[in-house]
Amino acid sequence: MTAAPTRPGTGQARPDPGPPTTGEEILRRVREIVPVLRERSADIERTRRLPADVVELLRGTGVFRMGFARSWGGPELNSIQQTEIIEAISYGDPAAGWCAMIGSDTGLYAQFLDEPVAKEMFTSLDMVTAGLLFPTGHAEIVPGGYRLTGRWQFGSGVTHSDWVISGAFIYRDGEPEPSSDGDPHDSKLMIVPREDVEVIDTWYTTGLAGSGSCDYAITDVFVPAERTVTFDTVRNGEGPLAQPEVHMRNMPGVPLGIARAALDHVREMVVARKKGDDYRTQVTIAECEADFAATRSGVYTAMRRQHEVLSAGGTLDDLTPDERAALPLSRRHAFRTARSIVTRLYDLLQTSSIYQPSPMDRWLRDTTTMCQHVVAQDRILQSAGAYLLDSRPAFPLCLGITGGKK
User: Fold this and answer.
1) Domains, in order of start, for the chain
2) pTM over 0.85, yes/no
3) What value does the mean pLDDT take over residues 170-179?
């Protein structure tokens, strides 16, 4: 018999409320566990992965199910709601926010699989999918599917995942297989059960230590053809979430949550120490608040415009070039601005920032590490700039462009 869940931090049993069905309910549950996440941050960082009880806390909020369609019994939250929820979790702990962001993609991937296949794989809406999407593996064509071998980096959440999705180049008889759209070497995403994956404990990093983003290896595992994905083909579902770049949209929630947490922390410290009359402090706080407000507005304005077009039956091509470019640009800007805000606040507190009881050191390292992700790199600037100038983006998927289109 399963024990009744407890109120976070109390140990008191309460009736099981059942799975959440709305974004409001998921956000309410997330806010309830934020103090627990904050208390557990040091443990999360020390273990270099999310402890099992923290994973279950997150699962209980419903965050991992938020991308599943209503036709499946899921809440089908739009990208704006998803980002707000990731932002709230990251306010409690960045690694938990990062893993929630990655793990909640399961329902989004389901739309790129045939529905019977997806339902056979995802027997619970609260399953977690992890993995690296860039094609670094070797998938040999065999009858009925592929034999997959390879090693991938950055498997955020792989230590507690149910499924692992990995990019791989396609080979036939050991030779590169061209794609139907003219690419000389085709690639696909392959989804395998977690038990077919070897986790390699490489995750000793500057920051985001608690995300457990270890390397992982898959050796000669058969992947049925129906468990492969390409983002240019939606196999079930339609609307705003059935789009090729949907898995990138809620990523700004992590840096925005950290930046807000750092601002609140420093403001509370300044007031408690009665240092609010200091000119430098006033100017730094005001500058950081202005940058945060503008950056957050840019993220949500771009997503709201996208949602408006897609929910009315339009496509990404119906966005103006400026509107479409604003999506990846605002994401990148959120990562970079969060790091800048945390750095300035760290400097403002001077030696108070460097001691372990202060979260500033962890936030500084976490924002530094997350800015190494591709969504925060100059490749995004090049892609958006090239698109605006009618040239070829280096990373077209960040703009939702697939299939060799410019």
Assistant:
1) 23-121 (1.10.540.10), 129-229 (2.40.110.10), 252-399 (1.20.140.10)
2) yes
3) 96
